[in-house]
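Thanks for the sequence, V.! I ran Apoptosis-inducing factor 3 right away. Repeating your input here for the record:
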Amino acid sequence: FWVVPAVEVKIEVVIPEKERSKEEMSPNGKASPLIYKVNGTARHYHLEEHPIASNPYHNPKDVVEASVCHVKDLENGQMREVDLGCGKALLIKESGEFHAVGHKCPHYGAPLVKGVLSKGRVRCPWHGACFNISTGDIEDFPGLDSLPRFQVKIEKEKVYIRASKQALQTQRRTKMMAKCISLSNYNLSSTNVLIIGAGAAGLVCAETLRQEGFSDRIVMCTMDRHLPYDRPKLSKSMDSHPEQIALRPKEFFCTYDIEVLTEMKVAAVDVKSKIAVFKDGFKMEYNKLLIATGNMPKTLSCKGKEMENVFNIRTPEDANRVVKLATSKNVVIVGASFLGMEVAAYLAERAHSVSLVELEHVPFKKFFGERVGRAVMKMFENNRVKFYMQTEVSELREQEGKLKEVVLKSGKVLRADVCVVGVGAVPATGFLKQSGINIDSKGFIVVNKMMQTNIPGVFAAGDAVTFPLALRNNKKVNVPHWQMAHMHGRIAALNMLAHGTEISTVPYLWTAMFGKSIRYAGHGEGFDDVVIQGDLDELKFVAFYTKSDEVVAVASINYDPIVSKVAEVLAAGRTIRKRDVDAVAFLSFRTGDMSWLTGKGS
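Predicted structure:
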């Protein structure tokens, strides 16, 4: 279906207060409407009336004010979760100033007091999202919303916080956005910005454009039947329904005039004419284009691969169907990928049996290293998952049209009522082969630091691209992480608006299995050693991945917030040397003192 916003003529834009003085004043010092040029035509729209006042809370009954501590209770660089009676806030002291923001990460609700405070921002301990402590604005991902910001005042050596009760309860804030100018005037087959793909990259691109005051037409198209949703939950929380994992409700897209065309596949792009051709023959002109089509799962090549009850997990319906069919049945999972392992963990308590087939001899060996891979494998075996390693599937056998057995090349025959395939993915870029857009030998779209392709006005983002990673001396890499897709979308949007913003974020990912979360930051491709501190058997450890003498990535279980701390150090451009992670340094982890990370290295 199409989500088409209702016609809106009034344009509402809120400029951050610190920018208002320069944005609202024309050269002659008088208030001026904002002007945005589209295709060379100046279009005017006025700022929403939003006077700066000493009291920003419109409803006094919605406001609470409370004394939360003495000014000397917090040292510089400290954070404290404080209770205002009807909700909590995060109180922060940095450089002698107090700040108060929401205390929970809007992504999955992590307690930010357990995160990392550094140079004006706090980083989530779970998944690495970063928030500005002065404004509450989100600065790194995952997640879409910012933190609410609360007023702080000092009276008689006491710290007071004044906050909206609603903000204390919701613990999230959606940044104000522009709306589209005169939708009644547009041509159905023409848009200013076309976004192919409605995952994290596409959605963040659209939202960022609106946040930056872009007021022309935005169209997103997707092959999916649903509005953008939290795709990582397909393998981590398989019985979730689409509406439960939606990133934004339908009303959001209508409110901010972001059109979504569902079940629409682009078959070709004519970059000279700036036209996208859809599979059904429909054509749409664009001025700026973002390609964020992601990956397509690989399929098996053996006999019987097309039979019923053999799944790639691609949609919520796939995940829901697998859970239903697997309950109290025999499940075979092919591939010890992140998806395969997460599905195995989710089904272990629900299925009669779970067998996992993998070509390597240890899961995650290339990503986490052999020792960490073995520790994870042991955890799975302790939860009744049976591994069949260093072998492949040679045949899928059926009985009465349904899967009955999985035959391995080793000769082993496994009973199977359901088979889930998780053997990797390939970039969904086949429709671009004749477009002139630069595609590498593996099918990835090549972009620069501003997410631009070799074609002017064409940007690409997400799992389908290779881009220069600052952390690895601008080596062109593919980083198929949920967090990175968010940042790609934001950078692409800013550069559609000619901001000249380059990507410099540190990759951050997580996986959850049997109640244990593995957190990972950096880019460890090509690591030559792993320095492990802690206890692998107890699944309480931190692993530093090094290349030559330099730490290039870190992973941990039960050692928060070490991964977020290392991510913050790497984001600051510091180098962590191998010698910095010896046993003496590890003693400081146990006391919570990680100052050595910011005090050493280059």
